[in-house]
Amino acid sequence: MTTANASTPRKDRRRRYRWAAAAVLLLGSFAAAMVFGAADTTLRDVWRALATRDTGETLTLIREIRLPREVAAVLVGSALAVSGAVMQGMTRNPLADPGLLGLTAGANAALAATIAFLPSASYFAMIIACFLGAVVGSGLVFGLGAMRKGGFSPLRLVLAGAAVSAFLYAISEGIGLAYKISKDVSMWTAGGLVGTSWEQIRLITPFVLVGIVLALLLSRQITILSLSEEAAVGLGQRTAQLKAVLFGLTIILTGASVALVGNLTFVGLLIPHIARGIVGTDYRSVIPFSAIAGGAFMMLADTLSRTINAPYETPVAAIVSMVGLPFFLFVVHKGGKAFS
Questions:
Q1: Once rounded to an integer, what is the mean pLDDT over residues 299-326?
Q2: In Å, what is the CA distance from 84 to each residue of 155, 166, 181, 266?
Q3: Is residue 26 a part of any domain in this protein?
Q4: pLDDT at residue 15 above 90?
Q5: Does residue 70 belong to any structural domain of this protein?
Q6: Is residue 4 pLDDT above 90, yes or no?
Q7: What is the largest CA-CA distance in the chain?
Q8: Which of 159, 140, 146, 148 lies closest to 100, judged by CA?
Q9: Exposed e or buried b for every residue in 242-264, given b needs 16+ CB within 10 A?
Q10: How many CB atoms lie within 10 A of CB 180?
Q11: Which of 71, 81, 65, 75 has its CA nearest to residue 306?
Q12: Which domain holds residue 311?
């Protein structure tokens, strides 16, 4: 009894330290993102820009360019990380990721079609188009994955996702060339945060917050579903309805992300694995930790994209892929376990 009682406070302390470290990482990433870049700024400039109404060229740059950009990075990183965690728990597929299973490619194709056929469409209309495109892309992937007997094996879904994504990206490029909008499409396809405005953030934020809150509310059910279908049914879950809600949730988060910054792959694969390695397999902890770590990761990636070749920008999608692709191969080599 004494040993058991002593181990509980130690576990609680370790848990608190992990969450504190995550919070420090998020704040540190934000500070680095606001200070470093092509233009020289200091922490004092950042403080003045956020806490006072002082004016000046540097303060305006921080308020109107860097701050909305980093807020967008937090929203997108959190959205993609949470959607990846939900997909991995729902499908029990360690390779599940919105970018690998056709959601981002479908949203990207819909975005290109909207720019070509409805050039005067509002930003809100583009968001809706991205949602619909994500539905089509994921539907094609799961449809191909179910064509053969044996269910949705992780490898089969990834192969189907690669084929469908290549097809949908080809459609995007074809639309861009045919309607001479390749430059507009490629700005989104490159997965960049350049030019993010407060108006875009105001439109996107409700979708991201609703998706994350729903994921948190359903986190206990996701934990049970991640164990096995039989366990979920035995505990009284209506698995078909639950999966439909979770699928809609991932579409909301992915569609909103693509509408804001374009195609980004591997964030939804990388972050949930790391989160499970740190806080365990209970999705009541995995989802909030993924949201925090995803936001920090995206800010760090964006900071690198602005600084490694300043004053020019390296596409943030390239930075993410340089980290994500080796991790993907590592997960495959480990049989899907990674840090879990």
A1: 89
A2: 16, 20, 31, 9
A3: no
A4: no
A5: yes
A6: no
A7: 74
A8: 159
A9: bbeebbebbbbbbbbbbbbbbbb
A10: 9
A11: 65
A12: 32-333
- Does 311 map to a domain? yes
**What is the residue-wise DSSP string for 137-191?**
HHHHHHHHHTSSTT---HHHHHHHHHHHHHHHHHHHHHHHHHTT-HHHHHHHHTT
**Is a pLDDT exceeding 70 seen at residue 218?**
yes
Asked if 269 and 104 touch (Cβ cutoff 8 Å), the reply is: no
- Top-confidence range, 30-39, 178-187, 189-198: 30-39
Residue 327 lies in a domain: yes
State both tokens at 2.
């004494």
Separation CA 274–CA 296 (nearest Å):
13
* Mean pLDDT, residues 80-96 taken together: 90
**Amino acid residing at 130:** C
The token duo for 76 is 């997108």
Amino acid identity of 183? K
CATH, residue 125: 1.10.3470.10
Distance in angstroms (rounded) separating the CA atoms of residues 129 and 112 = 10
Q: Which of 28-32, 289-293, 314-318 has the lowest mean pLDDT?
A: 314-318
Q: How far apart are CA 279 and CA 290, in angstroms?
A: 10
Strand segments (E) across 99-200: none
Mean pLDDT value across the chain: 86
Give the integer Cα–Cα distance in Å for 113 and 29. 35
Place of tokens 């934990």: 223
Count the domains in the chain: 1
Give the global pTM: 0.89
Distance in angstroms (rounded) separating the CA atoms of residues 183 and 194:
14
